[in-house]
Amino acid sequence: MIELSAYDFSIDPPQTAIREWWQVLINIEATFCITVGKVQIIQEPHYCVVELVNALRRWEASSTYLSDFEYESMNEEETELLWFRLASEDRWLVGSAWQQTECPDLVSTQALKTAIQIFKKSVEQSVANDLGVNLIDFEEFAA
To answer: Which of 36, 44, 60, 83 is the most core-located residue (most Cβ within 10 A)?
Structure first.
């Protein structure tokens, strides 16, 4: 079991009027968490969650879960902020440069797919409800 979640959504800096796609990617932040089994492996505030959702969407479209995923942010110099590495035919190792503890278990492809789908929908809804920004209004997100 794996869960990707985000909470405490904000626009940083707060006075920013979100009008452009790049602002959606780097100015919308939240606390981002990953839990595998009962172990929280990352809890990071000020994470560019919309940028992560965008990266996950591109990866899903191009790899169909057959290649590794690695997320890097335009806002960070550090690499490997989130990664999924195919460990076997149907099992994934999950990690991050910022992880607090090692991932206790491998994650099935189906569990990873489900977690990503729930996370993407949750971020889209939270950004709309909490910040009044509809991601679908941006052509790059709707594509």
So the answer is: 36
C-alpha torsion 23→11→122→49, nearest 10: 60
Preceding amide of 45 cis, omega within 30: no
pLDDT of 79-128, one tens digit each? 788 999 999 889 999 999 888 888 889 999 999 999 999 999 999 999 99
Cα–Cα distance measured from residue 50 to residue 30, given in angstroms and rounded to the nearest whole number: 9
Strands 69-71 and 39-47: unpaired
The Cα 86–Cα 93 span in angstroms is 6
The DSSP call for residue 99 is -
* Residue entry with tokens 């990352």: 42
CA distances from 74 to 3, 50, 59, 104, 122 (A): 24, 12, 17, 29, 22
